[in-house]
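Work Package 3 (structural annotation) set out to generate three-dimensional models for the target panel prioritized at the project kickoff. During this period the team completed the workflow that converts sequence records into discrete structure tokens, so that structures can be stored uniformly alongside our sequence database. As a representative example, we reproduce one entry of 279 residues exactly as it appears in the project archive.
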Amino acid sequence: MRRTMLQSVFLYSCVVALALFTIAPLLWLVTMSISAPTDLTEVPLRWIPSEFDFSRYGALLNIDGGSGERFLSALRNSILTAGGATVIALMLAIPAAYSFSRRGASMVLLFAFLATIMMPPITYILPLYSTFSAFGMLNKTTTLIIVYTAMLLPFATWLMKANIDVLPVEVEQAAFMEGASTSYTIRTVVLPLALPAIAATAMLSFLVAWDEFFYALIFTNDLSAKTLPVAIADFSAGRVTDYGVIASVGVMATLPPAILAICFQKFIVSGLVAGSVKG
């Protein structure tokens, strides 16, 4: 069907408005990060910096103490915790999803998994804190990896099951007829076919763990385990707040997930769409 001129104008206007709504906060964050401190406190607000100041980025990348040490330590911890939890959750979610999709595992159990992520995080804090404290595991990245894995596993299992459901079962049956075991079939047949779904699940799981704040705030207290969301909150503490530094940390914190999203864009789109069509 051909669109009329009015429909085309309305469609493109909505696209432009959505793009501005999405990009404008990011552009303002970048502008704040390179603005002089006086520009950020002027009334009325100065939208265009009087001078461009990139010194904050240099300070954040300087490991010799100060804000650079805090930022780089938090960046390392975020990569370790989000990446580690994503890898472990996928290793557990793929066979679990295959069991629900191909082996007739009880859907009641799957819905019970999903029910765990519907509870407010604060309900788990007291038992988790008591347990980790008893084992001496507070303020460790390993603790966050365990918590994030438990948080990501139901979501990853559900998303992987939806994508395995639409894979052709005849290919797996042919492998079984040739004498292949279940583990071999999953490794050599299912995983290559489900690669887009794995990439999409990994990316979304990584983003959830990367942005998590509540558990990281409760279970960490120094540079050895604090993640970026907590570190950003620390940058705003104190009598004088440098909004430019906070904006610079925010810009730097968005780069790793943005780079991953760009690199795996094709897999993410196809993986998310694959689970929505069956037959």
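Residues 66-102 form the longest helix (37 residues).
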